[in-house]
Every structure is written in structure tokens, then in C-alpha cells.
Amino acid sequence: MKKVFIILTILIQNYVVAQNKTNLNILESLEFEDEVKSDSIPSIYTSKTGNTAIIRPGKNEIYFDIFDNNLIRKYSKSVETERKENYLGDIFYNNEIKVFTETMPKKDIKILSCYILNLDNKSTKKIELSQTEVDKKLSLYSNEKGVDFALSPNSKFFTLATYTIHRGEIYFQISVFDADTYELIFEKQTVRNENSFYSIIDIQIDNEQNVFIFGKSFFDKDNPQLRSDETYYYLMEKFSKSDYSKLNINFADKYVKTLKPALFNNSYNLYGFYSDKDFSQIKGVCNISIDLKTLTVGKTNFQDLPEKVFTDMFGSKRTERKKDKELSNFNIDHILIDSQNSVYLIAEEFYITTTTTGSPYGGSANIPHFDDIIIIKFQENGDIDWGRSIYKRDNRPSYNAFLKSGELHIILNSGKDLKQLDEGRTKTKKGLFESSALYDFKYTIGGNENIYKIQENKDNTYYLPNYGKYADEKFIMMNDSKQQRKFMLLE
Q1: Could you tell me if 61 and 78 are in contact, meaning their C-beta atoms sit under 8 angstroms apart?
Q2: Residue 153 has pLDDT above 70, yes or no
Q3: DSSP strand E in 35-168: where?
Q4: Can you say whether residue 122 is alpha, beta or left, with left for phi > 0 and alpha for psi between -120 and 50 degrees?
Q5: 229 touches 219 (CB < 8 A)
Q6: C-beta of residue 62 within 8 angstroms of C-beta of residue 47
């Protein structure tokens, strides 16, 4: 009997349920029939009068939904698009949503258009932005197409940079428009021979109509068909109406897989992970500042991961062995900036394993893993303030992050009862036969962690934070139902 009591006591101590409710206000919409079968929310915007709009592209339509402060759907409209008209993205200013699309009515003609929705009077209209001749081969046989766009800080100009990859070349078209009249101010076209060895990371436009494109290249001129880890570099390009300049950035003996931008204090700041071994590993974090006026590199920092990252992830007993080793497979998902210009880097571990299917005919299946989360907070000067991690296990995308009132919120789904381990860390995992719950992992300005249970998931109330969106002090996400759709809003 004594042994049974001891075992029960250990089991009780090994589990903790977040009893406290989150301090976020929670609103849920009524169920409604949804024509859009996608779970993602590309964009949400809120007007000055409190109307919240959600934009979702369909196969041949663009769907606009407008909700009031109580998350009651007041307006819904489907705008039919033309055949082979592709949604590019959207921006919001002057209380209007501008949705950009691209059409190719002929093999050598590309048309950029804009759908405009006013959030208060709910009027919609479509205008043509530009019409450009392109190489027929690019439109017919391109391997990849993409677009990036940005709005100037004074909201007077916006830019679209469309690109097409075809065989050994990347075709760029950079267009700058007046944000009020939609008049084309200037357009630049260029071709580069770096193919898939180059990728765009970010695009910006300043108040002087200068366009900055930040990208990464693994191209080696001596071996143009092979990716070159030895000669990789980051590239900042500056396009204006009458000039072009560029800045190459490399890190000598450091491996920097990804850099993500944060803009403040008139400086372009980049944050990422670095390794001493290869691009898949992580030894620590790095940040670098670029002066966009002079296109020069400023301060560069390389810092080891804080010990608390390892303690949260591995426990106090294993930290001493783990902290001098490099981690792997972490992808940066979020770069967030608070009102004090502190920067939060949030990354998730992702990898794929293969297992046999158990079928008498043989075969295997790939299993994705969305595991541990790393959180690093930087001070304004680029030095690390603190670091934490979440010991997590999942096989589907499950989380999202945002800053509100100076606190960081990590919203995620996991098991109904989170397991508290004896080293003081929390194991965030759903058991095989366990029901699930939605949690708010909240971090104070000093890095203290509090875990709150938002709800236990039932029926159509399983929401998808990973596909949600934060804007205008609100985080909104959809439930995991294609027919009886519901929205949850946290504010």
C-alpha cells in the first residue's frame, strides 16, 4: 500500500495544470458556413472605428470579411478575379486595404492590379497599376515566381518587387507607385544569373523613394551550377530612379544560415543564429546594423546562447554537458520589436524523420517534428537581455507569438495536462490518448514565465494559432473546421 501511495504521489507531482486564466480578453465568433477552405489568415486589419477585416484569397475569388468589436460578422463579400489572376499580397493605409494581383492575359504581357476595400463604407474597386512586356520563356517555363512589397514610413509610396526564376537566371522588376494616386513613379528591370542560389529576404522603401532589397546568395562564379557554402554572402541592394548601389556582407569563419530584419532608430538591424561548424548548427545569436543612407555595416555582435535556454530545454542536470555543444534544425519564425526597441527572436526546431508504414507491401512515411522553441530578447544596443526556451513536442505546426503591453505571448496547443518534470521545466506535449488544450505562455519584460490555460479544446473549438495573425493589438485565429467556421480573438 505504501508503494502505491509513493507512486501516486510522484505521478501527481509530475503533472501541473495551468489553473490561472490568461489576462487576454477572449472573444469567439458564432459559427458560420465558410466558402474559403483554407485555414490561414494572410492579413487582418482594424479601422479607426474598430471594424476588423480579414482578407483570404480563394481559387477564383478574394474574400473580405468585416467583424465588429464583439467579433460579430457584419459584412462579407466575394470579389471574383480573372482567370489565372494570382493574389500577391496586401497593405493597409488610409483606412483602406489594397490587395495586389498579377495577371498574364498574353504570354508576354504582365499586368499588376490593385483591389481596394474601404473598411468603413465597404466600397470596393479595382484599378490597373502597370502593364509590362516580359520574355515569353519566363512566363511559360519559369521554375518559381514571387513578390515582395513595402510601404514607405510616411505612407506616401509603395513598392512591389516581382521576380521570376528561369533556368540560370532571375528576372527582377521593381516598381514604385504613388500611394494616393497609384501613379507609377519609376520601374527598374534587371536579370541576374544566380538562379536558385539567391533568395530575397526583405524589401523596404524609404521616404525618398529608394528601394532596398536584402537577400542571400550561395552563387560561385567559378562553379555556377553548384551551391557554394564557402562563398556565400548577404547582399543589400539600393535602387533609385537614377542610381543603383550594393553592399556585400560576409562573416568570414562564421556560418550564418538566416538573418531577419528589424527597423528602428533609422537603422536596419539584422538578427539570426550563427555556428562555427555549418549552416544547420547553432552556437549562438548574432546581430548586425546597416546604415541605409551610406550603405555601410555598423556594429556586429556574436553571442553565445544564454544558459537558461539549455536549462529550460534539457533540465539542470544535463545543462552542463549541453551548453558547450551546438544545437541544430532551428528556424526563425518571428522577429518582434517592443516600444523600447528591444528585439525578440523566436525560433522553432523542425526536422523530419522516416518510419516504416507497417504495410505488408513495405513502404515508409515521413514524420514532421515541430519541437522546442527558443526565445532570445535583445536590448536596443544588440546585447542579449535574456533567453528562454519551451521544451515542446508536436507533429504539426502549433504556435504563434506576439507582443502586447510589453509582454511576450506564445499561443500554442498541447496536451490537456502539461507535465512538470523534477528539474523544474515543463514538458509541452500531447499524449497519445490525451485531449488537448490551448495555452498562453506569457513572458514578462524580465523573462519570467507564466503558463495560462485559455481553454480545453472540444468539438469545433480547436483553434489554429500557427495560421493566425496579430495586428492592431489583436490576435485572431480560425478553428480547425472547414464547414462550421469560428474565429477566436485575443486582445
Answers
A1: yes
A2: yes
A3: 43-46, 52-57, 61-67, 73-80, 86-93, 96-106, 109-118, 124-133, 144-151, 157-166
A4: left
A5: no
A6: no
C-alpha cell at 415: 496536451
What count of other Cβ atoms lies within 10 Å of the Cβ of residue 84? 10
The predicted model gives 23-33 an average pLDDT of 88
Whole-structure pTM value = 0.90
The predicted model gives 317-339 an average pLDDT of 92
How many other CB atoms sit within 10 Å of the CB of residue 173?
19
Q: What number of CA atoms fall less than 13 Å from residue 457's CA on the CB side?
A: 23
Pairwise CA distance, residues 458 & 377, whole Å: 35
| Three-state DSSP state, 96 | strand
Per-residue pLDDT at 296 = 93
Q: 256: closest CA among 271, 235, 240? A: 271
Q: What is the spatial distance between Cα 467 and Cα 163, in angstroms, rounded to a whole number?
A: 26
Per-chain mean pLDDT for the chain: 87
Give one DSSP letter per residue of 245-268, joined into a string: EEEEE--TT-B---EEEEEETTEE
Alpha-carbon dihedral of residues 453, 454, 459, 461, nearest 10 degrees?
-150
